[in-house]
């Protein structure tokens, strides 16, 4: 049976600019945002600490220059910028999927306790097994994220109503709090583990290099591409579980597949950089305002806008102070006012 992929908003009057523009205008915005994403990525190769000119950075990209310059540009700026792009892709896609699965426009990937589960597993790996390095952290984070998402899904899907969005949200918040609390307590009683992961806790790109890129690029890109398969099903879920089932959508399997993809995306991003807040919340909202709620546009564009937000935040983090700020601090500084505005806007809509 075919699945209705039509924009659910077509049944009511348009309420955002994105719902009032045509496909051609949306395509134009898409091209503009792609250009912005590529431009910011290249700008990331030339901006940062150190007294290096644009010419020095350009030559270093092709292996020309002093060894110190080559080290800074090719082994610092380039990989950290590419890592910002990858994490932006992961968090943007995860945020769109999460909001679609829960039908909650204020949902964030961390709402299922995925980030907290990844953090908890990394702490346990460091304390109990002495794990260090991106590869070990990545494996631990993926296991922890998967177990956390599985626990939330199993507990949240019990009962007559099954995996109802509100039950999953409440279960995820509770599980996330438990995992975070235990993980934080373990770092407090084990100073060695605290020293090992304290730079990771704040969410930073500083010191990240090709090792992190080589570990996370495959799962992030694979999960982002796989998420496109969910597009028609997410549009169907927006109509409600009963109507989605009437359209032939296997609601339980779609939610399970979505949770697996969110687990992979958030687990990889969290292992690489640490907890990055608000990006998964902000990006889908910005895209929804520009393009409307149709996931045929929403999900692919989140994959483009996510890197724009992450790379721009990293550029601000590099130049904001003489000593670089953690990028997680910048995204939190930007995201907190956005969250307040979104809550106020949502309250106005509900009223």
TrEMBL record:
Its transmembrane ranges are 27-48, 81-98, 137-156, 168-189, 209-235, 256-277, 324-343
Q: Which UniProt keywords apply?
A: Cell membrane, Membrane, Transmembrane, Transmembrane helix, Transport
How does the UniProt record describe the way this protein sits in the membrane?
A: Multi-pass membrane protein
Compartment list:
Cell membrane
Task: Supply the Pfam families for this chain.
Answer: FecCD
Main subcellular location: membrane
Q: What highest taxon heads this organism's lineage?
A: Bacteria
Q: Family assignment? A: Belongs to the binding-protein-dependent transport system permease family. FecCD subfamily.
Q: What is this protein called?
A: FecCD family ABC transporter permease
Taxonomic source organism: Rhodococcus gannanensis
